[in-house]
């Protein structure tokens, strides 16, 4: 049983760590991005205990803080990036997170942040512009725990994941101390029962009257998870304070994209200010664009082929500058736009089109490429490999176009050719 539990915990670990380890390389779709204050507001609307907070913008209106009293305040720049506390601003100001017990220091701190770019390990080199600052009540923490609700394939549904070792890398906890990680499958119809909530609270090492308080918070979090069509709700840390409260200090929420039609208010909060303009344009065309650091642009169909294509490029001595996933059911106009998006990347020196068609029609891809190149001559050498549905017709279209295209059937040879052209 211990071995089985460890296996299940590592399965949960895989779900939690997959995006961190692999999605910077391949994402099938950009996730909805909510600022920290939006996530906290969702928690508050569903009666989850959080720190009281206020929001300041460029107006720096002191009236917003007039009725906000706390023993200590946390002043946090709002951007979609981690490492804010250790970051610095383009005006020389240090730190995107500050603590103060003096209310008169809040506005000067915010003034040094708003309207300036914050640079952290997770931002672009030039940083991200801060237009809002959250001022939150600082809480005195006795203990930090971890709680998340995720959709887990192992259980064909939702699962609660809990650990008394909160405030740290949960993947490391699962790997090094699996006995400190508990996973409980949740029946989507029955929900989190009183018994399950108390079981989790006790595992999180809450004692006495705090057990019931924690159990109530867990049930509220489940209610939020269901009501907003979440696929992941992570509270790290869920803390016990010195005044006897259970507080969700930090939250990460992922949403089911298929539920956008009934979660319009939430999806309208999507923050795209830190998103690459090419990625935004691709998304508007129902395509997926991912920026990387090499010199070869990649047009593919499907995340699996994207990874294989990038591996071929790397093995041939090159590096991908980006990749654009056409997905299924793509039209000619989308293919033409995709090529222009790839060409707009200043890092690109050559482009590799690698399509293995099933639902996608190779002839459609070929016509899209030809149309784009005839409208405007290609800026960079194009190496094209098309296999699958209508591949023969597609090659004829490309060959008869009269365009300077390099058509290669073998994937390895195509990768070697594009690497050579990019040097």
TrEMBL record:
ATP-citrate synthase/succinyl-CoA ligase C-terminal domain segment(s): 299-418
GO biological process terms on file: succinyl-CoA metabolic process; tricarboxylic acid cycle
Record keyword Phosphoprotein present: no
Binding site for GTP: 51, 83-85, 139
The organism's place on the tree of life at top rank: Eukaryota
Transmembrane intervals: none
Top EC class of this enzyme: ligase
EC number: 6.2.1.4
Coarse class of the protein's main subcellular location: mitochondrion
Residue ranges of every copy of the ATP-grasp fold succinyl-CoA synthetase-type domain listed in the record: 33-240
SUPFAM superfamilies linked: Glutathione synthetase ATP-binding domain-like, Succinyl-CoA synthetase domains
Residues holding Mg(2+): 236, 250
The entry's keywords: GTP-binding, Ligase, Magnesium, Metal-binding, Mitochondrion, Nucleotide-binding, Tricarboxylic acid cycle
Cofactor: Mg(2+)
Pathway: Carbohydrate metabolism; tricarboxylic acid cycle; succinate from succinyl-CoA (ligase route): step 1/1
Binding-site residues for substrate, renumbered to this chain: 301, 358-360
Assembly and oligomerization: Heterodimer of an alpha and a beta subunit. The beta subunit determines specificity for GTP.
Protein's job: GTP-specific succinyl-CoA synthetase functions in the citric acid cycle (TCA), coupling the hydrolysis of succinyl-CoA to the synthesis of GTP and thus represents the only step of substrate-level phosphorylation in the TCA. The beta subunit provides nucleotide specificity of the enzyme and binds the substrate succinate, while the binding sites for coenzyme A and phosphate are found in the alpha subunit.
Protein name: Succinate--CoA ligase [GDP-forming] subunit beta, mitochondrial
Organism, scientific name: Papilio xuthus (Asian swallowtail butterfly)
The gene coding this protein: LOC106117118
């Amino acid at each position: 049983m211990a071995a089985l539990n460890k296996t299940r915990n590592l399965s949960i670990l895989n779900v939690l760590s997959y995006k961190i380890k692999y999605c910077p390389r391949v994402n099938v779709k950009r996730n909805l991005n909510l600022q920290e204050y939006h996530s906290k507001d969702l928690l508050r609307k569903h009666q989850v205990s959080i720190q009281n907070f206020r929001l300041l913008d460029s107006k720096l209106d002191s009236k917003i803080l007039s009725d906000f009293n706390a023993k200590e305040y946390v002043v946090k720049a709002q951007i979609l990036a981690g490492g804010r506390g250790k970051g610095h601003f383009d005006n020389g100001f240090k730190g995107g997170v500050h603590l103060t017990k003096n209310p008169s220091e809040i506005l000067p701190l915010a003034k040094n942040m708003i309207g300036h770019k914050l640079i952290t390990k997770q931002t672009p080199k030039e940083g991200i512009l801060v237009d809002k600052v959250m001022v939150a009540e600082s809480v005195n923490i006795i203990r930090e725990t971890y709680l998340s609700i995720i959709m887990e394939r192992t259980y064909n549904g939702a699962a609660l994941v809990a650990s008394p070792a909160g405030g740290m890398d949960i993947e490391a906890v699962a790997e090094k101390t699996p006995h400190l990680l508990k996973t409980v499958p949740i029946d989507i119809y029955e929900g989190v029962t009183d018994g399950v909530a108390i079981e989790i609270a006790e595992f999180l090492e809450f004692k006495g009257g705090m057990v019931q308080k924690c159990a109530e918070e867990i049930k509220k979090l489940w209610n939020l998870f269901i009501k907003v069509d979440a696929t992941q709700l992570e509270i790290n840390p869920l803390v016990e304070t010195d005044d006897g409260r259970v507080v969700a200090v930090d939250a990460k929420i992922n949403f089911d994209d298929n539920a956008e039609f009934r979660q319009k208010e939430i999806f309208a909060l999507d923050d795209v200010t830190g998103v690459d303009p090419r990625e935004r344009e691709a998304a508007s065309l129902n395509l997926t664009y991912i920026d990387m650091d090499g010199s070869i642009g990649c047009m593919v169909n499907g995340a699996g082929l994207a990874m294989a294509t990038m591996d071929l490029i790397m093995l041939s001595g090159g590096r991908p500058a980006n990749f654009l996933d056409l997905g299924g059911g793509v039209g000619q106009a989308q293919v033409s736009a995709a090529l222009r998006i790839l060409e707009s990347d200043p890092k690109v020196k050559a482009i590799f089109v690698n399509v293995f068609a099933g639902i996608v029609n190779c002839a459609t891809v070929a016509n899209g490429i030809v149309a784009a190149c005839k409208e405007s001559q290609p800026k960079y050498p194009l190496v094209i490999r098309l296999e699958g549905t209508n591949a023969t017709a597609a090659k004829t279209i490309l060959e008869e176009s009269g365009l300077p295209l390099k058509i290669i059937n073998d994937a390895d040879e195509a990768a070697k050719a594009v690497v050579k052209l990019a040097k």
